[in-house]
């Protein structure tokens, strides 16, 4: 799929764009199956340790993690793309249908940025007493978690839900047009978030997005995740892309080419190599590169 001129202009004017039907169920199923296996493995370990009373094997993907989490929040400890480094997830990062959309905004020399997450936002009623800012993300701009040497880099966020993201399941809210102001001061307390007295006054827009769609955001667009009032887990993946060679904002973590018109053979197709690149990174380096 290519973005239309209207969509490109809308992205450039508003600082975000919602694009439905980029991927179909068939494209997403390998990632969902891989996540389901990861959750199953975690559940079996916790069950063996006596921390879970049941495995909830009959529950569908959208529900099982919530059932497990309700009994044992440890199921989600450290759960992210870089912790399990799945082959299907690697294929999604460079998926042709996704990269075609990226190309419409950034040209044909493209790298996948190392800031990449999978999030399992559980129903709010199950949320632990301790706030979890990875699941319930407060107002921020994505540039706040990049190093300042990437200020001039266009790093675009591609957020995609693995279930329908609605006001009920806990989609994002975005502030349109505000990106033109550039970086707004953030603070680390309360999850990397915009200083409350600096919060722009723009009226937020609900960024509902069906499964298979994308929410694309400028790195200066303020956004947050709203609460999950449903009974299902709001699974989502958020990725970022930048032009190959531009500072990624995470120089100590692996970026890799996903498209190149000038050197097609430079595109990384080997999931094993991607894993090795991540395994060579020390654990806490990403956090140190945040601005606050
Ligand atoms: O998934 C969410 O609710 C927020 C994610 C986010 O902030 C991002 O993808 O940049
Ligand atoms: Fe974000």
Explain what the structure shows.
With 292 residues, the chain is α+β, with helices and mostly antiparallel strands. It has one domain: Jelly Rolls. The chain is 27% helix and 17% strand. The protein is built from eight helices and twelve strands. It has helices at 5-14, 25-48, 61-71, 81-84, 87-93, 96-106, 271-279, 285-288; strands at 16-19, 109-112, 117-121, 156-161, 172-174, 186-187, 193-194, 205-207, 214-217, 223-225, 234-243, 256-260. Strands 1, 2, 3, 4, 9, 11 and 12 form a seven-stranded antiparallel beta sheet that branches. Strand 6 (186-187) and strand 7 (193-194) form a beta hairpin. It is globular, with a radius of gyration of 18 Å. The termini are far apart. The mean pLDDT is 96. The structure holds 2-oxoglutaric acid (AKG) and fe (ii) ion (FE2). Fe (ii) ion (FE2) binds at residues 140, 142, 223.
In the CATH scheme, what's the topology name? Jelly Rolls
Order of helices and strands: HEHHHHHEEEEEEEEEEEHH
Count of DSSP H/I helices? 8
- Beginning-to-end CA distance, first to last residue: 37 Å
Overall geometric form: globular
| Number of discrete domains | 1
Compute the CA-based radius of gyration. Answer: 18 Å
Uncertain runs are none
Bound small molecules, by name, code or SMILES, are: 2-oxoglutaric acid, fe (ii) ion
Mean pLDDT: 96
The biggest sheet, with number of strands, parallel, antiparallel or mixed sense and barrel status, is: 7 strands, antiparallel
What proportion strand?
15-25%
Name the CATH homologous superfamily. q2cbj1_9rhob like domain
């Amino acid at each position: 799929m290519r973005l239309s001129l209207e969509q490109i202009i809308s992205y450039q004017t508003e600082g975000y764009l919602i694009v439905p039907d980029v991927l179909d169920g068939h494209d997403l199923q390998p990632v969902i199956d891989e996540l389901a296996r990861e959750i199953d493995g975690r559940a079996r370990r916790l069950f063996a340790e006596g921390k879970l009373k049941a495995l909830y094997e009959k529950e569908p993907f959208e529900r099982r993690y919530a059932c497990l989490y309700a009994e044992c929040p440890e199921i989600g400890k450290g759960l992210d793309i870089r912790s399990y480094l799945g082959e299907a997830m690697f294929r999604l990062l460079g998926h042709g249908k996704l990269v075609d959309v990226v190309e419409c905004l950034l040209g044909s020399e493209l790298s996948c940025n190392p800031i990449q997450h999978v999030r399992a936002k559980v129903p709010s009623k199950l949320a632990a007493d301790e706030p979890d800012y990875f699941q319930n993300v407060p107002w921020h701009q994505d540039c706040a978690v990049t190093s300042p040497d990437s200020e001039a880099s266009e790093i675009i966020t591609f957020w995609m839900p693995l279930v329908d993201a609605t006001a009920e399941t806990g989609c994002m809210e975005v502030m349109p047009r505000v990106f033109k102001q550039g970086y707004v001061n953030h603070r680390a307390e309360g999850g990397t978030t915009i200083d409350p007295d600096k919060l722009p006054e723009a009226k937020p827009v609900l960024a509902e997005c069906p499964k298979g769609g994308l929410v694309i955001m400028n790195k200066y667009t303020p956004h947050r995740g709203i609460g999950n009032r449903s009974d299902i887990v709001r699974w989502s993946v958020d990725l970022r892309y930048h032009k190959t060679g531009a500072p990624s904002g995470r120089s100590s973590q692996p970026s890799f080419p996903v498209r190149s018109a000038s050197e097609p053979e430079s595109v990384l197709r080997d999931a094993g190599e991607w894993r090795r690149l991540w395994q060579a990174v020390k654990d806490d380096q990403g956090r140190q590169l945040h601005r606050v």
